[in-house]
Design goal:
Elements lengths: L20 H14 L23 H18 L1 H10 L8 H7 L11 H11 L7 E4 L5 E2 L3 E8 L4 E7 L3 H22 L2 H6 L2 H15 L2 H14 L6 E2 L11 E5 L3 E3 L10 H20 L2 E3 L7 E4 L4 E3 L5 E3 L2 H15 L3 H12 L7 H12 L14 H14 L6 H20 L5 H6 L2 H13 L1 H31 L12 H33 L7 H33 L1
Parallel strand pairs: 5-10
Antiparallel strand pairs: 1-3, 2-3, 3-4, 4-6, 7-9, 8-11, 9-10
Helix pairs in contact: 1-2, 2-3, 2-4, 6-8, 10-15, 11-12, 12-13, 13-14, 14-15, 19-20
Length: 569
């Protein structure tokens, strides 16, 4: 097979020799210093955290956000993907940083074609002979992989997705360094922020999801799973996978069509648009009820085929969410839109996970204030966007030091993307109406989850076991009551905040006692010196009195300084 020589173009090469921890550490530190980001950690990193207590002017905010984005883009795939995840976390990052991170350029120059060809040659059974033609100019070049247009030997056009060489090693090296820095940063956070923001958990989720995106076998599995979910819909499609996927190569059907933003105006009738929007909405709700989310179900990844079918072509950023969480989110949204705000506030406390620093009553009041403006609004209006509403609730929860589930922000991002798709397809129609037509199906899924023997079998077993053991346990309690031997063991635990307050108070009392003892001892030594003037004892007693006085004064001043500093914070 003859392949055209690659055209001259800018390339992004990841050299394995540069991926040692020492070299990457030096490069990251130099790049952070270049953009002035090392100063961010001057206050324990608080300038980059919502509720961090560091106020920046508008110019400082704009400059900080821009510098973070440029720094991440310059450091390459690891930081670009990290920035894309952080852009959804407005629960602990301020809006000016999240807004800037959404502008991260995921399209970077492709890998050198020679390296791509070497991957294809090594991983495909027939190597480059698999293809009759392969265009060296990629259709798309993202941070993790490049996509090329090709033709199989049997004549079928295809899209070939190839993971960038050495990108997995780059991730592993960078993540090991970032984890160390995050552990240090976590120790510098004030206790309320540390309790609410699980930075290590966020990093673990990011690492696992990013590695999954570098494995084409997992992406192919996502495609097969969702092909089954789409089977009941006539106009939703997943591209066919042509060859057995490998770790770094996925060969799939090349869709002949247009982006949702670019198809001809008269190609789809009003009925066609409504049909596609309804099916896309119903499919997405069905999958999230089963615990899946697709965070990139947006217009750039959806193509309108010439047979008037909607193809989802990218299946990298797909994850799992606990089904109990998704059920509670849908209940929360439903309660808000039907003006049952009190019930919505109770469900919000189940979703947002309050910590010991959460003022429950104030959280409910703030939630009600934000939720009331969404009641009975028309879905599809930007002011009543479900994803936007959930993100606003997340921010309220973060302001009250709740621990927000890591998958919730990505869920909201995916939901916002589907709403944007609906507005592109049919701006004249309410997305809420499309969602409401799925109510019966939602009820069916709820019942399947909660009435399934597979999910409730063990609960039934536990109830039966409790009932059979109940007579014996009642008999034992009755005998102990009769004998006067019944005892109840209780354990009282202080919250971490209370324990720290008590420990601090005790430490200060003990220190104050030591200061007083030193000063009193110094005074007693001074009294004893009167009868020993100009003797050896006078010298020793005077020295002891001086040491006690100086130690007492130093400790007393230090204690007052600590009290003044703690009162300011």
């Amino acid at each position: 097979m003859a392949v055209a020589l690659p055209i001259q173009q800018e390339v992004y090469h990841i050299d394995a020799r540069d991926l040692t921890p020492a070299k990457r550490r030096n490069l990251i530190v130099r790049t952070f210093t270049k953009y002035g980001l090392t100063l961010v950690f001057r206050d324990g990193g608080l300038a980059i955290f919502r509720n961090g207590g560091v106020n920046l002017s508008e110019d400082q905010q704009a400059r900080l956000g821009t510098n973070i984005r440029r720094c991440f883009e310059e450091l390459g795939p690891t930081f670009i993907k990290l920035g894309q995840v952080l852009a959804t976390r407005s629960d602990f990052l301020p809006e000016f940083i999240c807004d800037e991170l959404t502008l991260l350029l995921d399209a970077i120059p492709p890998a050198p074609f020679g390296e791509v060809a070497a991957v294809l040659e090594a991983e495909l059974p027939d190597g480059m002979r698999t293809f009759r033609r392969l265009d060296p100019q990629p259709l798309g070049s993202a941070s993790l992989a490049c996509v090329y247009k090709a033709e199989l030997r049997d004549g079928r056009p295809c899209a070939v997705k190839v993971v960038r060489p050495n990108v997995e090693k780059l991730f592993q090296t960078d993540i090991a360094l970032i984890k160390g820095w995050v552990r240090r940063l976590s120790k510098l956070l004030p206790p309320p922020l540390a309790a609410a923001f699980d930075l290590n958990g966020l990093l673990d989720d990011y690492y696992s999801s990013s590695l999954a995106e570098t494995d084409m076998r997992q992406e192919a599995q996502h495609m097969e799973d969702h092909r089954a979910y789409m089977a009941e819909y006539d106009h939703l499609r997943v591209p066919e996978v042509y060859l057995k996927p490998t770790k770094n190569v996925l060969v799939q059907e090349l869709v002949d069509g247009w982006s949702i933003k670019e198809f001809p105006v008269d190609f789809l009738t009003l009925e066609d648009r409504a049909m596609l929007m309804n099916e896309a909405a119903h499919y997405y709700i069905k999958t999230i009820m089963e615990g899946y989310y697709h965070a990139d179900f947006h217009a750039s990844n959806l193509l309108v085929g010439r047979a008037k079918q909607l193809y989802a072509i990218d299946w990298g950023m797909v994850g799992h969410v606990d089904t109990n969480l998704t059920e509670n989110i849908l209940k929360l949204v439903s309660y808000v839109f039907t003006n049952r705000i009190s019930e919505a506030a109770e469900v919000a406390l189940q979703v947002m996970r309050p910590t010991e620093y959460t003022d429950m009553q104030d959280f409910k009041q703030q939630f009600v204030t934000h939720a009331e403006k969404y009641a009975w609004n028309v879905q599809g209006d930007t002011k009543a966007n479900w994803g936007t509403m959930v993100m606003e609730f997340i921010q309220v929860a973060a302001a009250h030091y709740c621990k927000v589930p890591s998958g919730l922000a990505l869920w909201a991002k995916g939901w916002s993307a589907t709403e944007a798709v609906a507005r592109w397809l049919l701006p004249e129609y309410s997305y809420a109406r499309s969602v409401e037509t799925f109510d019966t199906n939602l009820l069916e899924i709820f019942l399947q989850h909660h009435l399934s023997f597979r999910t409730n079998g063990f609960a039934i077993f536990d109830v039966v076991k409790m009932l059979t053991a109940l007579p014996q346990r009642v008999d034992v309690i009755t005998e102990q009551l009769a004998d006067g031997t019944l005892t109840l063991q209780t354990e009282h635990r202080l919250t971490q905040a209370t324990a720290r307050t008590v420990n601090t108070a005790i430490n200060r009392v003990v220190l104050a006692a030591i200061v007083c003892a030193l000063l009193i001892t110094s005074g007693l030594f001074a009294i004893a010196m009167k009868g020993t003037a100009h003797t050896v004892a006078w010298i020793w007693i005077g020295s002891a009195a001086t040491v006690c006085a100086v130690a007492g004064a130093v400790l007393g001043i230090w204690t007052l300084w600590r009290l003044r500093r703690s009162s300011k914070t």
